[in-house]
Amino acid sequence: MTDQAVAGKHEKYRRLLALCKTLPPMPTAVAHACDDSSLQCAVDAAQMGLIAPILVGPRARIEAVAKEHGLDLAGLPIEDTAHSRASAERAVALVRAGKAEAVMKGSLHTDELMSEVVKRDTGLRTARRVSHCFIMDVPSHPETLIVTDAAVNIAPTLEEKVDIIQNAIDLAHVLHFQEVRVAILSAMETVNPKVPSTVEAAALCKMADRKQITGAILDGPLAFDNAISLASVAKKAIDSPVAGRANVLVVPDLEAGNMLAKSLSFLADADGAGIVLGTRVPIILTSRADSVMARLASCAVAVLLTAARRANSSKAVS
What we know:
By secondary structure, the chain is an alpha/beta fold. 45% of the residues lie in helices and 17% in strands. The chain has two domains: 24-125 and 279-318, 3-Layer(aba) Sandwich (Rossmann fold), CATH 3.40.50.10950; 129-276, Isopropylmalate Dehydrogenase.
């Protein structure tokens, strides 16, 4: 990594954290906070004033982990549960009861948590398709990049991609993107009937023209280099307000998104804060592999989303 990139590492996340300084701590149900990673994240975020954690899980395990790793849980409420499935269920119930405004994934499988989140009668569904965004801080790249969807929707349909894109656009506005430029990624920049993702990209762009997707400039299909490299755009003579300048990257499917996010992480030293959207409240997805800063940034994103939701609710009431 270059000296300039080292100097810029986490610069974008620090800006996110700064936006949260004037906001109150967000009550957050930490689902199955039974390992050092999830407990440390909850404690760190609480100390920074980002969240007010409610630790959900077997009390004895939580207290044993805290003691082993020297974590101070003083003042943090614990909701005692028997196992991970019960922890996920209780965390969702705390939101529905109005006691939490976000859910954070602890030491349980994402599928366990999300199965409770998406239940029709007892979950946290909205009219929108549930989707995931990585908010990527790439040290060598000038702008924050949103990558979607790399964790929830395996092979989304055209209809589902409309919601996936709108979720990401709305997130970008909450994160104070001055202009939201969405690239619909494929393997090429031309429409090819033999490559379905290129046809869907063209349809999505026309839907944006017809205001079925709002709040951003869309272009696609675009190959990854055409989306983020102005030099590549110049060589191919692509005329587009998005090409080379995209800050939201929409992938064809989960496999492509997963590989893109991990390539940025392991080859470009990027960090990826993770958030689930399209639910009543933000779902913070953290991983043991995440840096401390990435985990805190995930919390910060959720705090900003919650503040925006509160503001919109106040406007609706008035």
